[in-house]
Amino acid sequence: MPASGAETKADDGGKAAPGPAPEAAPAAQSKVITLQQALDAALANGPDMKIVRGTLDVAAAGYALAATKGVFSLSATGGYSAIDGIGSLYDNTALLTQYGSTFASLLGTSSSSVTNSATGGLALTGPMTQVGLSMGQLIPPAGASMNAPVTSGQLSLTQTIWNGYPGGQVQATIDKSFLAFQGQELGSTQGRINALAKVKQAYMTMLTDQRNLIVKRQILDNQDSLLAQIQAVFNLKQASKVDLMTAQVNARGAQLDVAQAAHDLALARERLAILLGYRPDAQFAVAETADPSLPAPSLQAAIAIGLKKRPDLAQLGLSSRSSGIDLLLAKGAAQPTVSVTGGFNAALALPGSSTVDAASVSAGVKIALPVLDAGAARDQEDAASRQIALYGVQSYQLALGIAADIRDAYDNAIILKERIDLAKSNMEALDALFVVTKTQNQYGTATTQDVLTASVNAANAEVAYQTARNTYLLGVLTLETDMGL
């Protein structure tokens, strides 16, 4: 009959013809995907995974930027200037500073006061090391008693030996940035778990609705057949009006159940398609899957896996390590900073000139010791210590919660699995009772109402069996999520 949900196949263009074709059983669909194919599609093109990957890429870029502070950088400078002396002031400070008194005084005898100067330098900078090299070229004015160009150079080195943290403050920043990046990776792992769990749940929901539609159609076929039988008996005046009305109500209810199941399946397909990166109107079915086994052989094994795999527990461990760096920095703030310096200066004239080369070497050590900081270092150390202790308490509490959640989900999954066997036995028993009741009705030992009641009970038992299977699937999924799988 028209209300029975008759199927119409999709055309060659992949679009469903008018009618309930999109809700057809798996055999009528143009494409059937397995759970693994669904997961692969979600990982490759699913919107949730794109967000997860994008977030991790941003975190990786941030860490890469922080890591650049831990390597040497090289910079170069260059310049040109003209020095114009005025009278006796020609023996000026700039010349004295850059080239020394000997060269400055020799230049001072020139009748032309404009001296050209070119400078350049390189600076090599690391977290605890700075190396500088600067060069200068002085071209004397015409008529100067020293008419040969003069080259000056300076090489300097500053090396910090200790400033309160191994590798220096910059290394502490890099270490904290790396821990933050690892935290983002754990967040990405959690995001991946959540995304795949959503896909699994959507897949199981569609599989449930797919199974449900098949069952509801079978029930409708049975109710239609029974209605036709009772109608024939009623026409022979061997069934009452109540019997016929009951059969009609049962058949109409079965028709509505099919319509509702078709709607549920269409909606479940659309939601799964979105998670997989498909078009919302994509037409496909999901492959049948056997009832899964538990993801661990025992409760203790499941808890051990969860404590090892759960990203949120590992995240607290990273936070504690980051606070450990803060603690070292706080302790280092009360320690001296030791650095050494060295340098070499030289001024050279061309061979054969009347000037004399000059050079100097310097070396030193510097110690900076905090004397009074109003207790800031002590307070920072205390705050970091308390934060580490707090993370320890949170980790312990979270571990207990994870164990409790896994225990609940594991025990519940075992019970749900046993309920499948119970529901199956009940379904088989009520199916057999329905057959017996129909036979009894033929021989006059059971009424038509008994047959109708037995048919409804058998149908409900079949629905209950499928519901038990579906509930177990979701129970296993909950367990896997609690275990961080």
Structure characterization notes:
This protein is an alpha+beta fold and 485 residues long. 59% of the residues lie in helices and 16% in strands. It has 9 helices and 8 strands. It has helices at 35-45, 47-67, 93-107, 169-235, 241-276, 299-309, 311-332, 376-442, 448-482; strands spanning 32-33, 73-84, 114-125, 129-139, 150-162, 285-286, 337-349, 358-368. Strands 2-3-4-5-7-8 form a 6-stranded antiparallel beta sheet, with helices on one face. A two-stranded parallel sheet has the order 1-6. A hairpin with a 3-residue loop joins strand 3 (114-125) and strand 4 (129-139). The relative contact order is 0.12.
Chart the SSEs and their pairings:
Layout: E1 32-33, H1 35-45, H2 47-67, E2 73-84, H3 93-107, E3 114-125, E4 129-139, E5 150-162, H4 169-235, H5 241-276, E6 285-286, H6 299-309, H7 311-332, E7 337-349, E8 358-368, H8 376-442, H9 448-482
Parallel strand pairs: 1-6
Antiparallel strand pairs: 2-3, 3-4, 4-5, 5-7, 7-8
Which short descriptors sum up this protein?
single chain; 485 residues; alpha+beta; six-stranded antiparallel β-sheet; two-stranded parallel ribbon; 9 helices; 8 strands; 59% helix; disordered N terminus
Task: Describe this structure in a few short sentences.
With 485 residues, the chain is of the alpha+beta class. It has nine helices and eight strands.
Instruction: Count up the helices.
Output: 9
Task: Let me know the largest β-sheet.
Answer: 6 strands, antiparallel
Q: Which word captures the global form?
A: elongated
Mean pLDDT value: 83
Low-confidence spans: pLDDT under 50, at least 5 residues?
1-29, 87-93, 105-111
Strand content: 15-25%
- The quaternary structure here is single chain
Could you spell the SSE succession in H and E letters? EHHEHEEEHHEHHEEHH
Report how far the terminal alpha carbons are from each other.
47 Å
Name the structural class.
alpha+beta
Q: Going across the major beta sheet, what is the strand order? A: 2-3-4-5-7-8
Report the C-alpha radius of gyration, rounded: 42 Å
Number of strands: 8
Roughly how much helix do the residues carry, as a percent range?
Answer: 55-70%
